[in-house]
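Worked example 3 (structure in, sequence out).
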């Protein structure tokens, strides 16, 4: 699969109205798409093992999407192949009182990746230019008036670009994934959540209210993605009406990003090799 087709790194504009959320690339159906699932997982395991051993780069994977687009499922899929010791997942909810008393990047910084590890953000600081923008939540926050300017979101885009550049220049890779579903597909997913008792818990009272702001969200996503697509921290817009396709594409994106990092097991010098040989001899000479 050519992940470049879905990558936004500043060299082309993202036009959300023209984007086909129902694409499935070269795959005919779910079975076809999932036929190389095991290969993906093995590849991911090998790469993660080396990332962990090398302990130099860290990887931040951000998932953003409308409700019911499959963020949780995507996180689960990606995690299924990974050594849990080398990964953390942080779910960004409505900010707590403590979080609100800090700048909006604070909670993300605390949850950011460590060297050798993968951090997964289920939602992120992008909420502060999405839900906050759609509902103008900053106006009722404790921000001082001097900060509640008309161009506050332009400023935030810049702050985010700077933050991500800062991370990149300090040894961290960032991949941002927007799971893009259609309004129709969201309706189908919501109906399933209402009809299937095992999925009832996934449906929140506020979900329909947010759906009512669909167009404003689409505009906010388009603006945020265009303003923060960079070479160092590209966005990938993943067609997500077919979840089985989205998951394969996401796994591919993460594998390719890690291949690009190309982590290596630390090599052992001559001195250390001699030392290991000594230890070997001691073990073999044991009674
Ligand atoms: P969920 O991910 O479905 O469990 O829902 C989390 C909710 O928290 C979503 O409705 C988000 O829009 C909301 N949320 C996350 N971050 C923020 C934020 N910075 N300000 C306001 N709401 C947020
Ligand atoms: Mg929800």
């Amino acid at each position: 699969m050519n992940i470049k087709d879905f990558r936004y790194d500043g060299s082309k504009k993202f036009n959300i109205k023209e984007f086909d959320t129902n694409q499935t690339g070269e795959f005919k159906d779910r079975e076809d798409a999932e036929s190389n699932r095991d290969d993906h997982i093995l590849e991911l395991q090998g790469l993660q093992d080396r990332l962990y051993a090398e302990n130099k780069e860290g990887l931040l994977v951000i998932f953003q999407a409308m409700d019911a687009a499959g963020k949780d499922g995507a996180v689960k899929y990606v995690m299924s192949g990974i050594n849990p010791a080398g990964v953390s997942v942080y779910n960004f909810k409505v900010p707590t009182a403590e979080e609100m008393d800090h700048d909006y990047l604070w909670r993300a910084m605390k949850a950011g990746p460590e060297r050798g590890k993968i951090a997964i953000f289920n939602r992120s600081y992008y909420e502060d230019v999405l839900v906050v923008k759609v509902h103008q939540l900053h106006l009722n926050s404790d921000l001082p008036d001097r900060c509640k300017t008309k161009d506050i979101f332009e400023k935030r885009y810049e702050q985010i670009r700077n933050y991500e550049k800062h991370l990149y220049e300090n040894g961290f890779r960032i991949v941002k994934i927007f799971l893009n579903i259609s309004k129709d597909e969201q309706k189908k997913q919501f109906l399933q959540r209402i009809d299937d008792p095992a999925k009832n818990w996934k449906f929140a009272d506020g979900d329909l209210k947010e759906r009512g702001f669909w167009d404003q969200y689409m505009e906010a996503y388009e603006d945020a993605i265009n303003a923060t697509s960079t070479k160092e921290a590209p966005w990938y817009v993943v067609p997500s009406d077919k979840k089985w396709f989205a998951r394969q594409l996401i796994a591919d994106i993460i594998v390719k990003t890690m291949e690009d990092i190309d982590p290596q097991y630390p090599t052992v010098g001559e001195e250390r090799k001699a030392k290991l040989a000594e230890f070997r001899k001691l073990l073999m000479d044991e009674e």
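Notes: Residues 67, 204 surround magnesium ion (ligand 2) (CB under 6 Å). The mean pLDDT is 96.
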